[in-house]
Amino acid sequence: MSNNQDNLETKLSDAKAVAGGMLSKDKHVSAGNQTTAVEIAKTGSVKDVILWLLAAAVLIGATLVNQYLPGYWQPANDLWVRIGIIVALFVFALLCLALTNQGRAFKTLLKDAAVELRRVTWPGKDETFQYTWQTIVMIAVVGLLVWLLDNFFNWFVGIFIG
């Protein structure tokens, strides 16, 4: 009995180690402690501040391109050139934000969310059909109750107002 229990505990600890390894691919490991996305996002550096300020300045510049750039640069009179510049500035700002600690934490969060989505058990066709009809019926019942209450309160207020 204890041999089976020891085997089960060993298998459980191995499974936890494998699951921990799957979830912590891009997380920093230091002295056996795993750094979570929240801990990464809370850390800051001078590089992060500079990148955040640069991204903010570039996004503000992107909002001003359409109004001011055609007056200073002849090719910017073309609509597609302005759209291309705005898109390029937006992509540059996103790249700057991705290079911050918060951006790395967001990428880790997205990867963890993708792992969790693979574990989701999605409903089948019959379950979806059943839940859809239940939802439609409940919406109709609640709509009818709200309509009845509205008519009642209109009638009730009409008695006092005259």
UniProtKB/TrEMBL annotation:
GO molecular function: protein transmembrane transporter activity
InterPro entries in the cross-refs: SecE_bac, SecE_sf, Translocase_SecE/Sec61-g
Listed GO biological process terms: intracellular protein transmembrane transport; protein secretion; protein targeting; protein transport by the Sec complex
Tree of life domain: Bacteria
GO CC term, one of those recorded: plasma membrane
Keywords, sorted A to Z: Cell inner membrane, Cell membrane, Membrane, Protein transport, Translocation, Transmembrane, Transmembrane helix, Transport
PROSITE patterns: SECE_SEC61G
TM helices/strands, residue ranges: 49-68, 80-100
Subcellular localization(s) per the UniProt record: Membrane
Family: Belongs to the SecE/SEC61-gamma family.
Role played: Essential subunit of the Sec protein translocation channel SecYEG. Clamps together the 2 halves of SecY. May contact the channel plug during translocation.
Subunit structure: Component of the Sec protein translocase complex. Heterotrimer consisting of SecY, SecE and SecG subunits. The heterotrimers can form oligomers, although 1 heterotrimer is thought to be able to translocate proteins. Interacts with the ribosome. Interacts with SecDF, and other proteins may be involved. Interacts with SecA.
Database matches in PANTHER family: PROTEIN TRANSLOCASE SUBUNIT SECE
Protein name from the UniProt record: Protein translocase subunit SecE
The organism of origin for this protein: Psychrobacter arcticus (strain DSM 17307 / VKM B-2377 / 273-4)
